Amino acid sequence: MLRFFHNPLLIAKLAEYDYLIKGNKKQSTAEYKIKRIIKDVTGEVFENIEVYNSGLSIPKITKNGFQATAIYIPELKELLVIYRGSESEDISDWFYNYTGIVSGENTSQIDSACLFNRFLKRKILDFDVCYKVAAGHSLGGHLAITVELLKKIYQRVYTFNTALPQLKQLRKYDKKFNKKLQEYFLEKDLEETNKLQEFTSNYYAKSAHHIYNFVRKNDFVQSLNMTVGTFNVGKTIEFPPIIKKFVKPEEYLTEEDTYELDKIFGDFYNRLLQKNITPNNVVENQKQVADEFIGLLVEKIKTPIQMQISNLRLKNEEQNNGGSKVADSYRTFKAIYNYLLYLAYLGIIPDDVIKSKGNKDATSLYKKVMGDTSKSNLKNLLKPLQEFYTLTRAIYTLTHAKALDDVEGWSEIAKAHDLPALYDELVKLKS
User: Fold this and answer.
1) pLDDT of 235-260, one tens digit each?
2) Rounded to whole angstroms, how far apart are CA atoms 93 and 310?
């Protein structure tokens, strides 16, 4: 049976409007705008609809960046829950993207999504028996899929250019899934999460036949979707690419890099928790969050090199240990550097900041050091130390940017990722 909220174009337009509700203090205005969108797309007029926005209804669950809007049509007994995607100005969303979707440590927005559904169950009398659809764009798609795999609330799920679910997050909620992983894999294999992606996709496949993912082939969100532990689930409907200059992230990032980025952002998240910075207060501590990330890189990259320099100066005999730490610093440096190279190539950060000079890897920066550290001289060790400052300058440029609109290439990337770019294709799909 074709339901009212089986219209992907309608859902996409409602999802786009959801981004605008955040600053709207009037519930009546949101209801009016939603009615207009429904009429414009479908021709249907509903006098009575119920709208519940998380920011307006229960703001305490939105401190971590989470936003969602529920639209209930009593006449049809149909409910649409829209999970909002990342907002470029909201550091909370990007904090979740990297510490949640990438590393799997942060689950705060999943918790908020579950609380929002509990709220809806109290507010909507027919919640248990009505037909329920979930939708989301980008980060919102990640949340819609994750909630459905965990709670099995919805009869259908639609996502647009979605960030993928993260199996390490699901392990924390789904005890049956975690038990299966431990039965099939040794503990050492559980740390190499890339081996588990196909297993996880197959495990949840039976619960994902009603999940539909509309994606652009060259959408930037792929840089999140290639990370350790993300997996595909549901049906994928691919639309033609619109970015002329696009390179897949794996052309810049090795599998080793993805493991290292996963570890870096996991360590970063736990580092902030130790300093009482949580997903709920990253906004008011934005400068400290950026500074703490640099501090982490100092510990992982700069400090081991400086210690090795001191060893050489003092002619310390413990050269082998120092060499091992320099090797670790290299892995960390290479992962971050190559990721920034990828961002520079796409146009998200200026390429003159990272000074790539067409080089797609950072191995040359440490090449001489990595041979035999015990024979390394100060000159060779100073080279990667100098490059560390190039790296931190690029990170500060990215984290302290006032706006991305002026960065060359960003507008094209944003257009490909945004919902309006999908409208024409969704119309064709309907016809």
Assistant:
1) 999 998 887 777 888 888 888 888 89
2) 41
Q: Work out the burial of residue 175: count CB atoms within 10 Å of its CB; fewer than 13 is exposed, 13-18 middle, 19 or more buried.
A: exposed
Statement to judge: residues 142 and 187 lie in one domain: yes
For residues 337 and 391, the answer to whether their CB atoms sit within 8 Å is yes
Q: For the packed helices 108-123 and 139-151, what is the interaxial angle rounded to 10 degrees?
A: 70
Distances from the Cα of 425 to the Cαs of 9, 94, 217, in angstroms?
Answer: 9, 28, 13
Here the contacts of 145-148 (C-beta below 8 Å, separation 24 or greater) are 145/208, 145/211, 145/233, 145/234, 146/110, 146/113, 146/170, 147/83, 147/110, 147/113, 147/114, 147/117, 148/207, 148/208, 148/211
| Whether residue 193 is found in the same domain as residue 259 | no
SS3 content of the chain, % helix, strand, coil (to 5): 60, 10, 30
Low-confidence ranges of the chain (pLDDT < 50): 317-320, 356, 358-363, 365-366, 368-376, 403
Strand order in the sheet with 156-160: 50-53, 68-73, 78-83, 131-137, 156-160, 211-216, 235-239
Residues 200 and 72 placed together within one structural domain of the fold: yes
The 10s digit of each residue's pLDDT in 86-118 is 987 788 999 999 999 999 999 999 999 999 999
Whether the CB-CB separation of 78 and 38 falls below 8 Å is answered with: no
| Identity of residue 355 | K
Q: Are strands 68-73 and 50-53 parallel, antiparallel or unpaired?
A: antiparallel
Q: What is the CA radius of gyration of the chain?
A: 23
Q: Partners of 135 in the beta sheet? A: 82, 158
CA distance 80 to 49: 11
Q: Answer yes or no: is 248 within a domain.
A: no
Residue 365 placed within a domain: yes
Contact 416, 243 (CB under 8 A): yes
- pTM of the shown model: 0.89
Q: What SS3 class is residue 22?
A: coil
Q: Which amino acid is at 383?
A: K
Closest-CA residue to 267 (of 309, 177, 328): 328
